[in-house]
Write a structure and sequence with these properties.
The complex is a heterodimer of chains A (667) and B (318). Helices cover 69% and strands 4% of the residues of chain A. Chain A is mainly alpha-helical and 667 residues long. In chain A, a hairpin with an 8-residue loop joins strand 1 and strand 2. The longest helix of chain A is centred in the middle third of the chain and has 36 residues. Chain A starts with a helix and ends with a helix. With 318 residues, chain B is mostly helical. Chain B has one domain. In chain B, helix 1 packs across helix 9, helix 3 runs parallel beside helix 9 and helix 7 runs antiparallel to helix 11. The longest helix of chain B is centred in the first third of the chain and has 32 residues. Chain B is globular, with a radius of gyration of 19 Å. Classes of the chains: A mainly alpha (667), B mainly alpha (318).
Chain lengths: 667, 318
């Protein structure tokens, strides 16, 4: 615990150094190195503490009668590992990536503050510390989003983010207020023991979904996320998408599984329905994007949906006393938390490398980078396979566990769940398949084919720090995918602490480190064997063919049915790749419309093809709210220009009204 | 757990599917030709084609990356490993615990992922059109397939293919609505996944209609041989899967004598022949769909499978 606190202190010192020397290259390197060291220290400590007993400490800071309560239990330790793993890699990445920064003093001071805020949220053991850390994290990340504030789109993103973050904090504030009750027990231990009435507990669920969900990006609260995440510098995007959303997941788990601790079965339905919608809509949105970083940000929405499917299933199983199934669902969700943090950070690092090498985020301006940036391309490919839930990498392992949990859903007694769980399974399968399409597009258009612009044609491989982080995370994807049993075992103390001791069976004992969640007869999967089999058979076949059949190779112009065109503009673009999927799903989900404006024969003007995609959530939910706020503001505008006499009258009137309300409230 | 006999059966099964796969493709082509009152090539023509391609030099487009050259082997290996996990003539394969039915679907998706990337690698318009359409078809086919897996695993209480096959062999399965729906769905998915009519036409080189063929248009020589062999293997895998799930009779179980295994192989060959002939008849009797009618076809498969799963969730007796 002391080391963790010292590391957070180092982060805060780094903020000071950043303010003082953020403009210089040396200052930036010092800050990033300090951040990397601090994150690595917390990572090491927290990794060991997952299986250890909780440790509490009260610092004489904060609210006088409460102090600053901090605690590391299994859940906090697990999320500390996830957060600081991403943070350490992002800091190392930033040592190299940061030299492309145009205005480093707008990034460097806020970066360690952002890390400190996230760590504080995870360490907090009272509502005050939690909300303080949450706001610290939100504001620091807002400042990072606004790093390139001269771009109007970024200012808009920052504005939307600020509004949504404030809304989220308000919801959490109310949730904690309800949990603390009239007695004002703001410590988490008091909330844990208190048992709220059912109505209050339901309100807490709604508020937690609004508060944590808006930070995590649950549909329909996701609108800020694809705007804000790509606007920040790439290492910060990696942290916001890969890690900060996990802090929000932590908030939800902490409130619902730990502090509230009991859930009727139908809460599972609410979470599952929102999560399934989030998963499918997130990936469909991602498929429509041509901006690489925005595509990744939208795809985070999908993965948050998958994680919440795991949490919702765990709630439903837990409410019915199916401990083992709940443990399986929660393990799948938490394992996906870890996996997503790894591969989404990896992909954002890759997108940042592409941005640094070519100056372009728009995939339509890229192409052919596999020749110019081989290391980045290979690591990005590993990330794409992992995120598309393809065996034998880690994304498949966690989704496989989730599928196993869904199959156990027949044991659920309630009719509502019997209908919802299979539908959730279908949406999960659909979103996994769509994710594969999405990342064929992301990798294929960016790295394969021919360069579409001179910038892409003259790209250079990035610096060794960036490559180091990218390669390390690619290896981690392979390791977590081939040895999922070890990761599952490591997560079990967390699961046990949240589900009254229900855990999965010990996976390390299984032959060949096979993943066997329930029973050998029921299901088993061994990523290592699958990987070895595929590689060995590919190598053997290739070697045999080269030895005995033919090894000659000739380079020639492409065939392309006899009409190859040297112009790179004739390649398939990101837009054309997504067109079939847009036709199939987009007409419903986005009211997508294509219009072809074909000139009449003899007319020499160019033909035009336009696609209109509408964000229905924005149009139906946010636009009316924004319009209402605008109208109210207009109406209240005249209050600004009253005489002092009128103002005093208003003050008096409101005082009287409040006193009346108070008098009526307490008869 | 790996005894010598088990290893022999596992290895024999891998070799058998590899050797038999081109024959199935040849059979389907021959039967289709005969139904059209053509003579058609010999059923062994695919072997000759593959041997010829293997001997030729590979022509690779300028600007193709290492991915283009690696993809055929990875595609082939993924599908081969997936096929190795499907019981053909004997249940209780030694390595069946390494990958359950969901992992087999996943391996097929990995193969498709690499093939779609290879289609985009050279940077031609045909490669792109093939990749993009194939991935669109896959989004529906794969989710339908997962729902079919759910149906079977809910009934058998396992996603392990050997356990499901054992369950299906047991006498008391009976006729079930959900199984019938799953069979329909599986057949539709098989047709789509193997690029057969009405979803795609394996014989076409017409620009507007080709999907799979467009994706592999740039391949030649040994690379094309690998892809052709992988496509044949995939068809064999699906027919074997349908056979092992819905007609599991005649499969040898672990520990039986040589005679049982020989009988198992013979019955497996009969199943493949029946499957091939039925596929040829079906393909001949139906017209190719427009690309944007395919989602309706596969959407029906997805809905059938979802209906089957929901029936099972709601009641155990369907």
């Amino acid at each position: 615990m002391t080391i963790v606190l010292l590391a957070v202190l180092v982060l805060l010192i780094a903020v000071v150094i950043g303010v003082a020397g953020g403009r210089t290259r040396a200052g930036a390197v010092v800050v990033y190195m300090l951040s990397a060291l601090a994150a690595a220290a917390i990572l090491v400590v927290a990794f060991a503490r997952v299986a250890a007993a909780p440790e509490t400490i009260v610092l004489p800071l904060g609210i006088p009668w409460l102090g600053l309560r901090l605690r590391i239990d299994a859940l906090a330790a697990f999320f500390l590992v996830v957060v600081n793993l991403g943070a350490a890699a992002a800091s190392v990445y930033a040592i190299g990536y940061g030299q492309h920064e145009r205005a480093p003093h707008r990034v460097v001071p806020f970066y360690p503050a952002f890390l400190a805020g996230m760590n504080l949220v995870l360490l907090a053991d009272d509502a005050f510390a939690f909300l303080f850390g949450w706001e610290f994290m939100s504001l620091a990340s807002w400042a990072l989003v606004m790093a390139y504030h001269r771009d109007g789109a970024n200012r808009h993103a920052g504005y939307v983010y600020l509004v949504m973050a404030s809304f989220g904090t308000l919801s959490l504030l109310l949730a904690f207020g309800l949990l603390a009750g009239a007695g004002g027990g703001y410590g988490f231990d008091a909330m844990r023991t208190a048992r709220e009435p059912a109505g209050i507990a339901f309100l807490v669920l709604v508020l937690a979904l609004l508060g944590a969900g808006s930070k995590a990006g649950l549909v329909p609260l996701h609108v800020w996320l694809p705007l804000a995440h790509p606007a920040a510098p790439s290492h910060v995007s990696a942290l916001m998408s890969g890690v900060m959303t996990k802090v929000a997941v932590y908030g939800f788990i902490r409130i619902m599984f730990d502090l509230v601790g009991h859930a009727p079965w139908w809460w599972g339905i609410i979470v599952l329905v929102i999560a399934a919608a989030t998963a499918v809509l997130g990936v469909l949105y991602a498929l429509m994007q041509h901006d690489l970083k925005r595509l990744l940000a939208y795809h985070t929405v999908e993965n948050i949906g998958i994680i919440f499917i795991g949490l919702g299933l765990a709630l439903a199983f837990g409410a019915n006393g199916m401990g083992e199934a709940a443990a399986l669902a929660l393990t799948a969700g938490l394992f996906h938390v870890f996996n997503h943090a790894v591969f989404k950070s990896l992909l954002f690092f890759g997108a940042g490398a592409v941005l640094a090498a070519t100056g372009a985020r728009d995939m339509e301006h890229l192409g052919g980078l596999i020749h110019r940036m081989p290391t980045t391309a290979l690591a990005f490919l590993v990330g794409c396979i992992a995120i598309s839930a393809l065996p034998p990498l880690n994304g498949f392992a966690s989704e496989w566990l989730l599928f196993q949990a869904i199959v156990l859903g027949t044991g659920l007694p309630q009719w509502g769940l019997k209908f919802v769980v299979p539908a959730v399974g279908a949406t999960l399968a659909l979103s996994a398949a769509l994710a594969a399409a999405c990342f064929v597009k992301a990798f294929g258009i960016t790295f394969l084919g021919r360069p579409r612009t001179p910038g892409a044609a003259s790209a250079r491989e990035v610096d060794p720090f960036s490559r180091g982080s990218i390669i390390a995370f690619a290896l981690l994807c392979v390791a977590a995918g081939t040895l999922p049993g070890l990761a599952v075992d490591w997560i079990q103390p967390v699961v046990g602490s949240l589900l009254d001791g229900a855990v999965l069976r010990d996976q390390a004992d299984m032959a060949w480190l096979t993943l066997v969640p329930v029973d050998w007869d029921r299901s088993s999967y061994n990523g290592l064997i699958v990987l070895v089999f595929v590689l060995v058979s590919a190598l053997v076949v290739a070697a045999a063919i080269h030895r005995f059949a033919s090894r000659r190779l000739r380079r020639s112009p492409p065939w392309d049915c006899g009409f190859p065109d040297a112009d790179p503009a004739t390649q398939y673009t990101a837009g054309s790749f997504a067109q079939p999927i847009r036709r199939v799903y987009g007409t419903l989900a986005f009211a997508a419309r294509e219009t072809v404006d074909m000139p009449r024969p003899g007319d020499t003007r160019a033909a035009r093809f336009t696609v209109r995609i509408r964000d229905l959530v924005w149009e139906w939910l946010y636009a009316p709210i924004a319009a209402a706020v605008e109208r109210a503001a207009d109406a209240l505008n005249q209050l600004q220009f009253l005489t002092i006499r009128r103002y005093l009258t208003f003050v008096f009137a409101s005082l009287v009204v409040l006193l009346l309300v108070l008098a009526l409230w307490r008869p | 757990m790996a005894t010598l006999g088990g290893l022999v059966v596992q290895g024999g099964q891998m070799l058998l599917v590899l050797l038999i796969a081109p024959l199935l493709t040849g059979l389907v082509r021959r039967v289709k030709a005969m139904l059209l009152r053509r003579r058609g090539p010999s059923v062994f023509q695919p072997y000759r084609d593959i041997a010829r391609l293997l001997r030729k030099e590979a022509i690779v487009a300028e600007g193709a990356s290492w991915l283009f050259r690696v993809a055929p082997y990875l595609v082939f290996a993924s599908i081969w490993v997936a096929a190795a996990m499907v019981p053909t003539f004997a249940t209780g394969l030694v390595f069946s615990w390494a990958a359950d039915l969901i992992a087999i679907v996943g391996l097929l998706a990995t193969a498709r992922f690499f093939l779609a990337l290879a289609g985009l690698d050279v940077g031609t318009s045909f490669g792109g059109i093939g990749s993009s359409r194939d991935m669109m078809i896959a989004t529906l086919a794969e989710s339908a397939m997962i729902m079919i897996v759910f149906t079977l695993s809910l009934l058998a209480g396992s996603t392990q293919l050997s356990s499901i096959a054992t369950y299906m062999l047991a006498a008391d399965v009976g006729l079930r609505v959900s199984l019938a729906l799953a069979l329909f769905g599986l057949v539709m998915v098989t047709i789509a996944e193997n690029a057969r009519i009405p979803v795609d036409n394996p014989a076409t080189h017409l620009e507007l209609t080709m999907v799979h063929e467009a994706m592999v248009l740039e391949y030649s020589g040994r690379h094309l041989a690998m892809i052709e062999l992988a496509a044949s293997l995939k068809l064999t895998l699906y027919v074997a899967l349908i056979g092992c799930l819905f007609a599991p009779w005649g499969m040898a179980t672990a520990g039986e004598g040589i005679a049982a295994y020989a009988l198992g192989v013979a019955i497996f060959l009969v199943k493949l022949c029946v499957g091939g002939v039925l596929l040829a008849v079906f393909e001949t009797s139906i017209a190719k769909m427009r690309v944007f009618r395919v989602p309706e076809f596969l959407g029906a498969a997805l809905m059938l499978a979802l209906l089957a799963v929901t029936l099972l969730f709601v009641s155990r007796s369907f």
